[in-house]
Write the structure tokens for this entry.
Amino acid sequence: MYPDLEKNTIIRMFNVSKQYGKMEALSNLSLEVRKNEFVFVTGPSGAGKSTMIKLLYKGETASSGAILVDGMNLSRISRKQIPMLRRKFGVVFQDFKLIPTKTIFQNVSLVLEVAGFKPKEIHPLVMDVLERVGIADRFEEFPPVLSGGEKQRVAIARAMVGTPKIVLADEPTGSLDPDSAAHIFRLLRSVHARGATVIIATHDQQMINNHNGRVVRLEKGRMS
Ligand code: ADP
């Protein structure tokens, strides 16, 4: 635990750099995010937005610098502590990452099974989030029969089912039509209204203009 970490700060990045071989994707990035902030990370393709998101849940490891998430120092945690870190997050991806051979219900319930919830507790929690994203009537169907917008609603249900402290979304509307994209944004807003910290990587300037939120702009791996 880090007593110097301000009480209302949930994420702190100090001088974080990330190299992929010789390519420096992020350079000396420092950023603080408060609890329940709504943050857009924007910038052109290749700016380092995805890399920043991945570093937060330790999908990638920083080359240098320090990242603190809700009291955990990511460069000090052991492999065994990674599941504990991951439980703090719900993550939404541009390509949904649903399991095609599992039903919509199972795609969402898996999160709670892994987190050790009892089967009796799982059913109402899953149905509640599917209801909230407006897809509860399709719970027995499989992802391939859904439209892109519907798949993303399932992905949002999966991201919010364990009531994680932080929801990360990497270009969540990148492959959706404008109506579906607007729906997904409303859902991310509702996740925020229920208390989560929400960080969205997007290059959709119109979405950013239409919604209140802090904007962090990256260019060539630096804050601009
Ligand atoms: P953005 O999300 O803003 O498009 P990324 O974080 O995906 O940016 O990429 C930043 C830079 O790092 C790009 O130049 C990209 O090609 C490079 N990069 C990203 N991931 C990898 C990887 N796994 N291996 C090598 N280079 C990568």
User: Anything to note?
Assistant: The chain has a mean pLDDT of 95. The pocket of adenosine-5'-diphosphate is lined by residues 20, 23, 25, 43, 45-51 (CB under 6 Å). The longest strand covers residues 9-20.
